[in-house]
Amino acid sequence: MFNPKSWAAAFINSLAARGGETAEGINALKALASWVKTLPGAVFGSSAAEKLEKLVREEMSKTGTSAEFTNSDPALETAVRFLVLMVRKHMIHHIDAVIEETKKILDKKNGIVQISLEYVFPPEDESRIKEAIIKRTGAGRVELEGQINPELIGGYRLRIGDEIIDTSVRAQLRKLETCLGDGGN
Fold first, then answer.
1. pTM value?
2. Where are the domains of the chain?
3. CB–CB of 119/152 below 8 Å?
4. What kind of architecture, by CATH, is found in domain 111-181?
5. Hey, which of 19, 76, 108, 111 would disulfide with 140, CB 3.0 to 4.6 Å?
6. In the chain, which residue ranges form alpha helices assigned H by DSSP?
C-alpha cells in the first residue's frame, strides 16, 4: 500500500542530505511533475525512468537550466532524481499526494497553519480571522486561502487541517431540518 507520508519524508531527507532548500525542492518537484503529466502515454518502469531523466535534462538545457546548473542546485537535482525514482517504482501517479504531504510536514515543522475559508461574501477583515487562528492553534503564521461558495447562503465554512467549522446559513438550515424531521428530539 502506498504511503505518501513516507515518500514525502524521504524527499525531505534527501533534500536535507544534499543541502537543498525545501521550499525550492517542492517548487521544483511541482514544476517537473506538471511537465511530466503533459507527456503522452504512461510513464512507468526503469527504461521509462531513464528516458524521462534524459528528457528532463534536455528540456532544462533548452530553457536555460543546464545540467551543470542542476548539479550545483541540490533542490532541483533532488527533485529530478526523486521524480525519476517514482517513475521507476511505478508510483508517479501518486506525485500530487507526495507533494501535498511534503507541504504538510514542512508547514508543521515551520509552525504554519493552512486554512481554507469558504464564504458567500469575502470577509472585511481577514487579519482578525488569522489572529484568532494563531491564538487558538499557537501557530507562528497562518496562510489563508479564501473561496467564494454561494451554496452556503451566508456565513462561512473554515477548514483547519481535518477540523471544519461550519457557521453557514446552509448548515444551520440542515440542523433545523434534522431537528424538525426527528420531531424536535
1. 0.68
2. 4-106, 111-181
3. yes
4. 3-Layer(aba) Sandwich (3.40)
5. 111
6. 4-18, 22-37, 46-62, 67-72, 74-88, 95-110, 126-137, 169-181
